[in-house]
Amino acid sequence: MNARQGRAKPLPPDDRRQAILEAVTPLLLKKGSMLTSREMAEVADVSEGTIFSVFPDKSSVIIEAVKTTMDPAPVRAALAEISATSPLEDQLDSVAVILLKRSERVGTLIGVLRSMQPSGAEKPAGAHRFVMESNAAILAALTDLFSQHRDELRVDPGRAAVAFMGFVFANAHPLMAANAKPDAAEIVDMLLRGIASPDVEAAT
Q1: Which of 17-21, 58-62, 71-75, 113-117 has the lowest mean pLDDT?
Q2: Do 1-55 and 71-194 share a fold?
């Protein structure tokens, strides 16, 4: 352990927790459950004792990493930065990239957490409510985006937002092979144009 790890700069507990999560999460995504508490301490530049002074155990670090990754605020901020004057398809391409990256990170961390917990273990308290609220916030932001293009849609903006999120969630399913997953551009194309060829559409 280096000298800095032995004397971590004093921080309020909440700030210390956040600093540890920001440092540990990228390595957790890379190494998964093989990441040790010593490696967590090294990447966060603190002692192992400091980590466990603000987190009860290793699983708690991962649970909080999942919650931080699922926080809708960064997604909403990223969506707000997309040019409102761009065509709908271009906007959705950007949105799909943002949501697919988020889904991949969340899926990886949840997989890590499940691999560490015994079969049949209870979900963390409030997990369902947190997930529902997070997805609802993102759905609301997507609905706002589609509402700006209401004249271009043949369905309600809210329904369009649900369909879009459905494509993204399906793409993130852990049982879907990586080489079978559509990319952001394919998702947007299928959402906007469907899967039927123009000839089929003309015949109907």
Answers
A1: 113-117
A2: no
Gyration radius from the chain CA atoms: 21
Residue 88 to residues 11, 80, 82, 83, 189, Cα–Cα distance (Å): 45, 14, 11, 10, 11
Kindly give, in sequence order, each residue whose CB lies less than 8 Å from that of residue 183, ignoring residues fewer than 6 positions away.
100
Per domain, the residue ranges of the chain are 1-55, 71-194
Is 1-55 a domain of CATH 3.40.1130? no
CA 40 to each of CA 8, 14, 52, 70, 111: distance values in angstroms, whole numbers, following the listed order = 14, 17, 11, 21, 18
Question: If one looks up domain 71-194 in CATH, what number appears?
Answer: 1.10.357
Is 80 exceeded by the pLDDT of residue 5? Answer: no
pTM > 0.90: yes or no? no
130/136 Cα distance (integer angstroms): 10
Give the phi and the psi of residue 82 in degrees, each rounded to 5: -70, 135
Does residue 171 contact residue 181 with C-beta atoms inside 8 Å?
yes
Q: Distances in Å between the alpha carbon of 57 and those of 73, 150, 168?
A: 26, 49, 32
DSSP code of 87?
A: -
What are the pLDDT digits (tens) for 80-139?
Answer: 999 999 999 999 999 999 999 998 888 888 888 777 766 656 666 677 888 899 999 999
